[in-house]
Design goal:
By secondary structure, this protein is α/β, with parallel strands linked by helices. It has one domain: Rossmann fold. Helix content is 41%, strand content 15%. It is built from seven helices and eight strands. It has an eight-stranded mixed beta sheet, with helices on both faces. α1 crosses α7 and α3 runs parallel beside α4. The structure holds nicotinamide-adenine-dinucleotide (NAD).
């Protein structure tokens, strides 16, 4: 018996890297996995390896989510939605960022998550249970100067996850964000991999991120931001307190800006 026997999972970006590792791990636990990817042959290959169902779709195009909804309906519904597809711009200089690069990253990393959650939420609600996991990044909770717009998109999905969690809890659905450090996938090929080449800093194997995803799916906690770093178990990130209004007579001081 696997932990996901009889369950249906959707994994976006399932043809490569973290998505492929997670889809494979979910299938190993008994899930029927709908592998969604803009790389059609890649989705076919991954799905055939794990006994899943391929859907060739671009997550940034709202109408293409209809094919994902059709696929899960043909499987009787969905239990796990892993919104993982993502891209970087590789551009640290904002002035050089082209419109097309900007629209692409916003489309995949932000629209793709919103469209996916919106399209599949009614299916999860129909079950009265389920789990959504979103791949954010360490760049979603800290500065990432090599690609500031990438960091912006990942901060956006962290905010979405934390803010949606209370509403989804009413529906019996959890939502959690995974924030890995540098993972050994094709996404970091080029400048980042080259920069890491001479260093001792270890990359995270995609399978380690998949374990964190599985743990988030299995648990009951929601609204979590889960950090995955090399050489340690995944940990929940805790945000610092936000200063409240200053009330006459209240103890404590807030440091001034500047
Ligand atoms: N690799 C890292 O160091 C790292 C670190 C933190 C977070 N992440 C995040 O992890 C997620 C997965 O990245 P990865 O490292 O596995 O990269 P990857 O390049 O190996 O895989 C990404 C997959 O997403 C697919 N994809 C891209 N655009 C798409 C679209 N519009 N519609 C559907 N599919 C699309 C690609 O075809 C590819 O199969 C991304 O959200 C990324 O931002 C990666």
């Amino acid at each position: 018996m696997g932990a996901l026997d009889q369950k249906v999972a959707v994994v976006t970006g399932g043809a490569s890297g973290i998505g492929l590792a997670s889809a494979t791990r979910m299938a190993g636990e008994g899930a029927k996995v709908v592998v969604v990817d803009a790389d059609g042959p890649g989705a076919e290959r991954a799905a055939s390896e794990i006994g899943g169902v391929p859907v060739h779709a671009d997550v940034s195009r709202r109408p293409q989510w209809d094919a994902v909804v059709d696929a899960v309906r043909s499987l009787g519904g969905v239990d796990v939605v892993y919104l993982n597809a993502g891209v970087g711009t590789g551009q640290r200089e904002l002035a050089l960022l082209e419109d097309e690069q900007y629209r692409r990253i916003m489309g995949v990393n932000v629209d793709g998550v919103v469209f996916g959650a919106r399209a599949l939420l009614p299916e999860l609600e129909a079950r009265g249970s389920g789990a959504i996991v979103v791949t954010a990044s360490l760049a979603g909770i800290m500065a990432f100067p090599p690609d500031p717009v990438y960091a912006m998109t990942k901060h956006a999905v962290v905010g979405l996850v934390r803010s949606l969690a209370p509403y989804l809890a009413e529906k019996g659905v959890t939502i959690n964000a995974i924030c890995p450090g540098l993972v050994d996938t094709p996404l970091i090929d080029g400048k980042i991999r080259d920069a890491m080449a001479g260093s001792d800093f270890p990359l995270i194997p995609p399978g380690s991120v998949a374990e964190a995803v599985l743990a988030a799916v299995a648990g009951t906690a929601t609204g979590q931001v889960i950090v995955v770093q090399p050489g340690r178990a995944p940990v929940r990130y805790r945000f610092g307190g936000v200063p409240g209004p200053r009330v006459a007579g209240a103890a404590g001081t807030t440091p001034p800006i500047g």
